[in-house]
Design a protein that fits this description.
The complex is a heterodimer of chains A (about 100) and B (about 450). With about 100 residues, chain A is of the alpha+beta class. Helix content of chain A is about 20%, strand content about 35%. Chain A has three helices and six strands. In chain A, strand 4 and strand 5 form a beta hairpin. The longest helix of chain A has 12 residues. In chain B, strand 1 and strand 2 form a beta hairpin. Classes of the chains: A alpha+beta (about 100), B alpha+beta (about 450).
Amino acid sequence: MSTAYDVIIRPVLTEKSLRGNAAGKYVFEVAPSANKVQIKAAVEKLFSVNVESVSTLVLRGKVKRIGRFMGQKPNRKRAVVTLKSGQSIQIYEAKE
Amino acid sequence: MKVTVREEGPIRRALSIEISPEEVRREVNHAYAELAKKVRMPGFRAGKVPRQVLEQRFKPQVEADAIETLVQQSFSRAVEENKLAVVGDPAIEAPGAINPADGYRYEVTVEIKPTITLNRIDGFEIQRPVVEVTAEDINAALKRVQSKHAELIPVEGRDKCQEGDFVNITFKGTIDGKADDKLSGEDEQFELGANRLLSDLEKGIIGMTVGETKVIPVNFPADYKAKDLAGKLAMFETTLTSIRKRQLPEIDDSLARAEEYETLDQLKERIGADIRKAKEQMADQAAEQNLIRRILDENPFPTPDSMIERRKDAMVDEFSRRYIDGKHPSEFGIDTAELRNSYHATALFNVQTFLVLEVIAEKEQIKLDDEGFDAYLKEVFGENANLPKIKAFLHRSNQLTAHLNMALQQKVVQTLLGRCKLIPGEPVKLPDNNLDEAGE
């Protein structure tokens, strides 16, 4: 059984990811197997917000070589979630 | 900043300090700005971490820092504005949480110097011990010189050892059949009856003859210093190798010559002069103490506990430095709390002396000039001391103020003593081991 917590792995906390917050865009790292519908449902459930749209991107894992063995770091998937205008997620913000 | 001062007795003040919301906010903002400069976080360039992220991660720490700065600044300002002569450490009761919207308030209790009203400080009759050098004093000192020149000579006419003899023994100790290097020695010298050996071993040795070998069972006492030996039974295979006894030289001119004096009378004269000097010093000290006691009786005032406690700490440190190599007393089985308590009366007296003399110095306009301080240093560190070097050292080790105080105190006491009538008191006695150096 997969829950919302299996879909959303962690918020992405970088300068670049926080740039969109004012416009209601939040970035999460999500399970590579998750699709946009699942992501939308999970974010709405976890943060009690309405999701307008979801864009995803896949970060290819780096190819690493140890001696003569080639290997690959796992791929990661990120989702940029746009909320219905006026809504926000408190996750990055300490309560004032 | 609003400060209310409540009096809690003559030497305690309770302050309640309130800091306005603006001041709190300014300090908190400042703390975050400082933190942002320093903190490095993955995903962010240095100094670019948003305030929200910082707050989420460092709030307790930043607030604690901000509170500390606020408390320190406001406390020292409060002390200054209210002209409080604070002694000891303030007892601060500060809530740990901070809410910029409400401002911040905390309570602090401090001890202050007591206000001393001087009723009477001079014109007393003060007892100064009579100084006299008795024949016993000189004889005791001569005996010490004599034993210093004692020689060990072989015993003749008997080969059995007895108490008081110096014996050389070779011994090998075993516990449960196992030999132990710690318990062995070759041809080592001991004085019988001086309690340098375990009593069982000593008893076993007494009565042995030279060359005799004997196995002596020895019970280590249960409270023996070395834990692994305490309470054990050890067998000592002991051989007596020689017996000698202490021969004291005659007290005559030849003893004087050994001390580099021509005749015994000259040695006696010198010893007498040394004893007199020591006794005069003790008499002076006793008179000064009597005067201070009298002053304290005439002008009572309450003494801040924190000063007494601090003085006790200093005395314990001093004890440790002087007698046990700066180690902690507990390493030697000394109960620190007990040691501290034993210093209570002296500490109280010292603190009161300090407080009252300070006030007197101010009232009587007694000041210490450079010459006075130099004279004091010469007295403490010896006539030929290198004064600039000593001053530099004291300055470096933060002892200069203490010594300046001591010198001023001395001057005040001497000035006051000059305005008192000295009456003869009980003669002083020398402590037993004070004159080892006499006659040198």
